[in-house]
Amino acid sequence: MISAGRAGQVVVHLDGVRKDYGETAALDGVSLEIRAGEAVAVMGPSGCGKSTLLNMIAGLDRPSGGTVTVDGQDLRLLSETGLTLFRRRHIGMIFQFFNLIDDLPALDNVALPSQLTGAPARQARMRALELLDELGIADRADAYPAVLSGGERQRVAVARALMNRPALLLADEPTGALDSRAGEQVMDLLIDLNQIGQTLLIVTHDLRLATRCAGHLVEMADGRVAGESALEPVE
Length: 235
Known about the structure:
Elements: E1 10-21, E2 24-35, E3 39-43, H1 50-58, E4 65-70, E5 73-74, H2 80-90, E6 91-94, H3 106-116, H4 121-134, H5 150-162, E7 168-172, H6 180-195, E8 200-203, H7 207-213, E9 216-221, E10 224-230
Parallel strand pairs: 3-8, 3-9, 6-7, 7-8
Antiparallel strand pairs: 1-2, 1-4, 4-5, 9-10
């Protein structure tokens, strides 16, 4: 479904990243590396800087200091338009509340990122259908988000995130809005994606999600990296 990339290649490099909001430092000198094929979980209490960190890596916000490099690109050097294009081509994003477009069926939701980068509609829809099939919901291609279950909506969101074969997949509380069964299915899906080479960064409050889906844990507190550790797979 996706290429594994070059083993060992640095996909994300943060060096001394700060983000200030007035006199408050949401990030205070964060340095971090994520290599191709890794699955990294970021955990910590509310307000510790997890979401700000994700937004920096996604190019949704700019640092007050330090550097953010993703897939070889220093994000400081890109304009707002450049950041948008970079994000579409290199980064996939999964959100807690899916962020699907309500008036588009599943197939068109998935195809949209490819069309936004200029791919012909027919080509985009063919790849979208392939992804939906691989994720086990091709039979829901014509269904609108309102009639999909939470688990189905998150699978559509995952397919959309994979549409442009991203170097990095960011997941922000990907199971937070799901019941336990659907949450387990999404965890299994993230594990499968990582096993075939997809680089993952997961922001979560859920220790079970982190220990099941990631091999490396980054713990944050007060805008800083408070610790890093290897994680053993948990069934």
